[in-house]
Amino acid sequence: MAAERADLNGILDQLKTIFDSKNTIGASPIDLSSDLNQRVKKVLTVNPDYIEPQASHFPFVTSFITSKSIDLDDIAGSQQLQGFREATIGIEIVGGVFNSKTADLTKDPADRDINYLMENIELILRSDYNLGRKIKWQKADSVQYYSTFSAKNHIRIGVLKLNAKIFY
């Protein structure tokens, strides 16, 4: 059997397909846009550094690969092309919201929206452990929350770190 490449682009494409399919009213287990001030407008597979910070792009979800750790324990030096490899893929799934509809000084609607969006993303991922058989398993590791520039600009970002195991 010839060596194969890890299908990293296929994993990202599958994430986009999953999030697109769950961005509908009545999606199960949850609508990606559930409880948000407005529906997710863009599902992407690009590094968020390439997303312009303008209101028309929000809310968005994007996924990108950050790392691939390869385990070679079971592969002899002369069997590099014949052996299967095991790898853990680091994926970041970034959600971004813009919400300037502040009506109550005790609550920030942008903070509420990013909390809902990131929880929706995690629940959707938990419902598809192997991402349509693109991976063996995946597990969310953490979620970090950020306000870009200043808290007064109404943009909030969440970054979910996901680990995915593959054999190739």
Relevant terms:
168 residues, alpha+beta, Alpha-Beta Plaits, five-stranded mixed sheet, 19% helix, 31% strand, elongated
Describe the protein's architecture and organization.
There is one protein chain. The chain has helices at 8-21, 109-126, and strands at residues 42-44, 60-71, 86-98, 137-147, 155-167. The N and C termini lie close together (11 Å). The protein is an alpha+beta fold and 168 residues long. The chain is elongated.
What is the H/E string?
HEEEHEE
- CATH topology, anyone? Alpha-Beta Plaits
Compute the CA-based radius of gyration: 18 Å
Number of domains: 1
Please name the fourth-level CATH homologous superfamily: Phage minor tail protein U
Query: How many helical stretches?
Result: 2
CATH class: Alpha Beta
Molecular shape: elongated
Query: Largest sheet, if any?
Result: 5 strands, mixed
Brief write-up:
With 168 residues, the protein is of the alpha+beta class. It is built from two helices and five strands. It has helices at residues 8-21, 109-126, and strands spanning 42-44, 60-71, 86-98, 137-147, 155-167.
SSE topology sketch:
Layout: H1 8-21, E1 42-44, E2 60-71, E3 86-98, H2 109-126, E4 137-147, E5 155-167
Parallel strand pairs: 1-2
Antiparallel strand pairs: 2-3, 3-5, 4-5
